[in-house]
Amino acid sequence: MISMTLAELAEVVGGSVHGPGDLVVSAPAYVDSRTPVAGGLFVAIVGERSDGHDHVADAHAVLGSRPTDRPTVVVADPVTALGRLARHVVDRLTAQGLTVLALTGSQGKTGTKDYLASVLSAVVGPEAVVATTANNNNELGVPLTALRATTHTRHLVLEMGARGVGHIAYLCGIAPPRISGVLNVGSAHIGEFGGREAIAQAKGEIVEALPAEGVAVLNADDALVAAMVPRTPARVLTFGSAGEVAWRDLELDELGRPSFTLSMGESDHRVVLLQTGAHQAANAAAAAAFAVAAGLEPADIARALGEARSASPWRMEVSERSDGLVVINDSYNANPESMRAALSALVAVGERSGRRTLAVLGEMRELGDEHEAGHRAVGSAAAELGVDVLVVVDDSVAPFAAGVDSTETEIVLTSGKEQAGAWLRQNAGPRDVVLVKASRGAALERIAEQLLASADVPDQPEENPT
C-alpha cells in the first residue's frame, strides 16, 4: 500500500481522525483481527456475530464507524470507505504505469487467475504482480487486494464475483480495469440470480467498464459470453477452441494432466500443464489471452504456463498416498459445470492409470430452485462418464443418487463427512483414485486430508531381533 498519514487517509475517505493525524499507515488493510498487519489498517466491521471495534487491541490504526482505543479514522460506512481508499490508490498507481486486469465467470475464475498471475510473475517478476488470494473477490476482497499494490506493482490481477446485477459494476468502480474478461456463464449462484440470462447480464458489466483503449477478453465457445461484444467499447480478443487464442490436439497423461497446442496469432506452441483436468486447457488459454492483451510475447506465455503451479489450495489438488492411492481434492467450491469437469478428470485418470474411480460428492450450494435438478444432473453425469463408485456424503444431496441410471456405478449413501470418511478408509485402496468435491460450506477437504493420512503404518522392527 502507498504510505499515508491518518489525516491524508481521512481526507480521501471523507472521515474524521481520532488520534494522531500524523500517524503513518504503511502496510495493507485487513479485516481479521486475529492476523494483525504491522503498520497496517484494520477495517472494523460490525457483523452479525462480531463487532470489529471490540477487537482493535493489536491494531496499528483503525478504519471504523466509531472511535476506538486505537488511532481511528471514523466514517459512516467502513466498507464504502475502504472502496474509496482503494480507488484512490489504484488511480495514483495507474498514473505511474499500473495495469488492472479483471476477470469473472461462473467457474474457472481462480484457476485462470492463478495461471495469469504465474505468467505475469515469470515475465515481469513476482514483486511486480499482485493478485487475488483465497475468495477475496467481493466488495471487501477487491479493495483489500488492490491495497496490497505498491509503487513496484505493474500488474494488478483481480478476480471479481457477483451475487446480483450491479455488483461487478461496483467492483469495477473501485479498481477500473484496462483489460477484463468473462470466462463463461454457468449455473453458479443461479438461485440468487434467477436464471443464466441474469447471470450473463451481471458478468458482462466487467467489459462495459472498459475504456475504449482497453481490451475485452471473451470466450468464443460460450454463446452468452460471445454475445457481450456489443456491450464494450474496447477491442475484443477471443479465446476458446476456435478463438484468436485457441487450443487444439488435447492429450492427457496418466494423472489427467493436459498437453495441447496453443495458438496465439501466428504463433503455435506446445504446452504441458502441471494441473489435472482437460478443463485446465480452457483456463490456460483464457490466461494466455489476458497475457497477450497485456503485451507479453507468445513464447514467454507458453513457457510460463508449462511451469505454473496452483497457488490456491483444494482446487484439483492431486496427491498420492504412500501406498499408491491417488486423491483429487477439489473441495473448495462446486457447481454443476465444475462438478462435471472434475468428474471427467477423475475418469480420465482412472482410464489412463487402470484405477477404480470413486467420486465423493457433497452439496452444491446457492442453486435455489435448481437444487434437486442440479444434483440429479451431476449424478447422471457420473454414471454417463463411467464413475465406478459414487459416495453421497449426506441426505441433503440424495438427488445425486437419484440421478444415477446405470447399474455400472455403485452408490454408497452416507449420513455425513464422518461416515463417508470411515467408509473410504475401509474401502479405498492403492489401485483407486478418489475425487472429493463440494461447495466450500460443506468442508469436505477434511475427508481428503484424513484419507491421505490413513495409509497403513509400516511394520515396526522387533525390539530384540534374533
Account of the 3D structure:
The chain is α/β, with parallel strands linked by helices and 466 residues long. It is 33% helix and 21% strand. The chain is built from 16 helices and 22 strands. The chain has helices at 6-13, 78-95, 109-124, 141-146, 167-174, 190-193, 196-203, 205-208, 223-226, 280-293, 298-307, 336-353, 371-385, 399-402, 417-427, 445-452, and strands at 4-5, 16-18, 24-25, 29-30, 41-43, 61-64, 72-74, 99-104, 129-131, 155-159, 179-182, 215-219, 235-240, 245-252, 258-264, 267-272, 317-320, 326-330, 356-361, 389-392, 410-413, 432-437. The strands form four sheets. Strands 9-10-8-11-12-13-14-15-16 form a nine-stranded mixed β-sheet. A six-stranded mixed β-sheet has the order 17-18-22-19-20-21, sandwiched between helices. Helix 10 packs antiparallel against helix 11 (298-307) and helix 15 (417-427) packs parallel to helix 16 (445-452). The longest helix has 18 residues, at 78-95. Mean pLDDT is 94; it is low at 457-466.
